[in-house]
């Protein structure tokens, strides 16, 4: 048994060494003695070789035996597997928080080992450090809090941010994920507790894009919360005040962006889980000024578009038929509108025609039409005209069931944040779809907010559907050896590559062309045989490979548009002269891989 564990771990180590440099370069450290053991960036626990123990003043501070990295790895995995065994039969919440705790303790102690186990076991661990468990962690963050991670800028820090940013210990930061906690997954306003999302997203950056963990920065902008329960919670760790609004709010975000830009002008800032009004407002405000993007609007759009194009291929039709697909989008928020924007642009590109009438958008009040009172300006361009709805026998505010029955859509796509909104009647109505392979995308997170479960989708909508969800579900056993494949339609397939490609390009801003290149790369990644089997996205086990491809596509687009200025010692001219293959190699070469590097002490 034990030998088996060792063998498979060794295999994993070999497999994932693909993007590593053969001999690790030394890392300069300014600490000695016990401080080294307490620094998770440099700590190797019992793995410090004797010579290094001498050099860093560690002799006597550790038990005498030197344990190899592989042995440390196996020891952790054994503890993890026993925890799994010991918590069998307990509730989802108890088990997943226990798993999160054991990983979090390793994260806090030894980042090199943490990221290695994460990379090698990404399928098992992504659901813990990312959706769905990260949602539960955010909901319980104030109680779970032990050690800080990332930075917190609050409404009380106005006027101080330019100096505060220098409190961060790293010289260089490449990637920042920023939230104000106002719309955490489908869980609503979680205030300061939303910091779990930037932490989880940046873990995915390290695992998928190989961003060096010493160069990432999770950030919480605490401008208050409108969540009454949190305001009354005695453990709540954030500001106890209602959210700032209007100019007061924007002044805080402006000051933060200026401070980041002043210290790290080339850092990429990913906006994450902002409520819709601020998601769109900040994107418009900063996108030409800073190298930033909004993952919920732009990352999600690319992943959804890749899935939508996949469903056309799954029907055995050419991509030009995308323009004929009838798509019902449920949720007119930042994610749903982002998807519609990108899908409509894709229709124009593919078919050469203008805006397309085959998209139907619903929000909490049903079908959106031009008749809607007080329609949000961002949603207005997608509202149906009276003539269009009358032609379909529909009306303003028609229910989802009515819309599905009348439209017979090829695709039903949920980004509503409402669990179970694709109920039995809706799913059964999808059996009358005009598609030979109707597609159901239940993209809301976490699992409790998915518009339907995978089992219900295959049970009610039929076995010939293509199914995707934002959080992972197991494949569905359809009997007689048949399997209903579950895809994970999550922006994790794009944001790491968008971030890495943009970083290596050194572009001043992230253009539509760079984002489109990312989506197209993902869309063309899967082979026809896989698509025929309903597999629209790569396995999460190959997330490092797909991320390298996406990053290379983004970098190529930046070079093509003349936006690339280069990064580090590779300048614009060198990038321009690289072939496609060389660009991909350049990306891979820049992906950090967790191995212990020799530590050299400098005063
Ligand atoms: N799978 C993925 O990669 C991603 C998933 N999401 C998920 O999408 C969900 C929505 O995110 P945002 O658009 O940013 O939120 P949002 O709050 O901006 O928008 C939610 C929209 O859903 C609508 N809605 C609420 N109840 C509804 C109902 N019963 N029927 C139809 N529509 C209803 C609202 O009116 C609103 O238009 C969240 O659960 C989030 O986790 C978001 C980004 C990426
Ligand atoms: C995946 C993601 O970004 C969200 O659910 O908000
Ligand atoms: Mg998000």
Automatic annotation (TrEMBL):
GO cellular component labels: mitochondrial matrix
Family matches, as SMART domains: malic, Malic_M
Domain Malic enzyme N-terminal: from-to ranges: 107-287
Pfam family for this entry, one: malic
Single Gene Ontology MF annotation: metal ion binding
InterPro entries: Aminoacid_DH-like_N_sf, Malic_enzyme_CS, Malic_N_dom, Malic_N_dom_sf, Malic_NAD-bd, Malic_OxRdtase, NAD(P)-bd_dom_sf
Cofactor binding note of this UniProt entry: Divalent metal cations. Prefers magnesium or manganese.
Keyword tags: Metal-binding, Mitochondrion, NAD, Oxidoreductase, Transit peptide
Cofactor: Mn(2+); Mg(2+)
Swiss-Prot/TrEMBL GO biological process terms: malate metabolic process
Domain Malic enzyme NAD-binding: 297-559
Entry's localization field: Mitochondrion matrix
Signal peptide boundaries: none
Domain of life of the organism encoding this protein: Eukaryota
Record-listed (S)-malate binding positions: 183, 445, 490
Positions that bind a divalent metal cation: 272-273, 296
Swiss-Prot/TrEMBL catalytic activity: (S)-malate + NAD(+) = pyruvate + CO2 + NADH
Active site feature: 130 (proton donor), 201 (proton acceptor)
Subunit structure, interactors included: Heterodimer of two related subunits.
Family: Belongs to the malic enzymes family.
Name this protein carries in UniProt: Malic enzyme
């Amino acid at each position: 048994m034990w030998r088996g564990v060792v063998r498979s771990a060794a295999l994993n180590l070999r497999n994932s060494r693909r993007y590593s440099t053969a001999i690790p370069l030394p890392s300069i450290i300014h600490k000695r003695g016990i401080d080294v053991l307490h620094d998770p960036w440099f700590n190797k626990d019992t793995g410090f070789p004797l010579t290094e123990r001498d050099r860093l003043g560690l002799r006597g501070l550790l038990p005498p035996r030197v344990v190899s990295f592989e042995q440390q790895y196996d020891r952790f995995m054994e503890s993890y597997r026993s925890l799994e065994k010991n918590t069998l039969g307990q509730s989802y919440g108890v088990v997943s928080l226990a798993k999160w705790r054991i990983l979090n303790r390793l994260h806090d102690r030894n980042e090199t080992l943490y990221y290695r186990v994460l990379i090698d076991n990404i399928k098992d661990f992504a659901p813990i450090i990312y959706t769905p468990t990260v949602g539960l962690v955010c909901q319980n963050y104030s109680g779970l809090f032990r050690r800080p991670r990332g930075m917190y800028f609050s409404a009380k820090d106005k006027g101080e941010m330019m100096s505060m940013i220098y409190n961060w210990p790293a010289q260089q930061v490449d990637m920042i994920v920023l939230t104000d906690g106002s719309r955490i997954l489908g869980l609503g306003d979680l205030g300061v507790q939303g910091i779990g999302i930037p932490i989880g997203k940046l873990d995915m950056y390290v695992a998928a894009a190989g961003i060096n963990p010493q160069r990432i920065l999770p950030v919480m902008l605490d401008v208050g919360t409108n969540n009454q329960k949190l305001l009354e919670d005695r453990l709540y760790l954030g500001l106890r005040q209602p959210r700032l609004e209007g100019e007061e709010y924007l002044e805080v975000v402006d000051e933060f962006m200026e401070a980041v830009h002043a210290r790290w002008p080339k850092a990429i800032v990913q906006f994450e889980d902002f409520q819709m009004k601020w998601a769109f407002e900040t994107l418009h405000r900063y996108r030409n000024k800073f190298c930033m993007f909004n993952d919920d609007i732009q990352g999600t759009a690319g992943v959804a578009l890749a899935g939508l194009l996949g469903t056309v291929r799954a029907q055995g039709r050419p991509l030009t038929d995308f323009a004929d697909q009838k798509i019902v989008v449920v949720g007119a928020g930042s994610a749903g509108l982002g998807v519609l924007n990108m899908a409509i642009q894709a229709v124009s590109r593919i078919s050469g025609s203008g805006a397309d009438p085959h998209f139907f958008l619903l929000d909490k009040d049903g079908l959106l039409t031009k008749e809607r009172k007080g329609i949000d300006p961002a949603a207005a361009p997608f509202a149906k005209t009276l003539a269009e709805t009358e032609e379909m026998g529909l009306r303003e505010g028609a229910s989802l069931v009515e819309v599905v029955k009348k439209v017979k859509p090829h695709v039903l796509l949920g980004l509503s944040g409402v669990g179970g909104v694709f109920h039995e009647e809706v799913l059964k109505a999808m059996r009358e779809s005009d598609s030979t392979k109707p597609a159901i995308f239940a993209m809301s997170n976490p699992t409790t907010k998915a518009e339907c479960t995978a089992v219900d989708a295959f049970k009610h909508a039929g076995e010939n559907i293509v199914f995707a969800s934002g959080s992972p579900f197991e494949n569905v056993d359809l009997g007689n050896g048949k399997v209903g494949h579950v895809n994970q339609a999550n922006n994790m397939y794009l944001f790491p590559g968008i971030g890495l490609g943009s970083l290596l390009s050194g572009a001043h801003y992230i253009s539509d062309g760079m984002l489109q290149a990312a989506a197209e790369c993902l869309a063309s990644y899967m082979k026809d045989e896989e698509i025929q089997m309903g597999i629209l996205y790569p396995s999460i086990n190959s997330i490092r490979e797909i991320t390298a491809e996406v990053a290379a596509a983004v970098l190529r687009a930046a070079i093509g548009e003349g936006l690339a200025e280069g990064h580090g010692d590779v300048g614009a001219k060198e990038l321009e002269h690289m072939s496609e293959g060389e660009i991909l190699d350049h990306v891979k070469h820049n992906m950090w891989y967790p191995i212990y590097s020799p530590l050299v002490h400098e005063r």
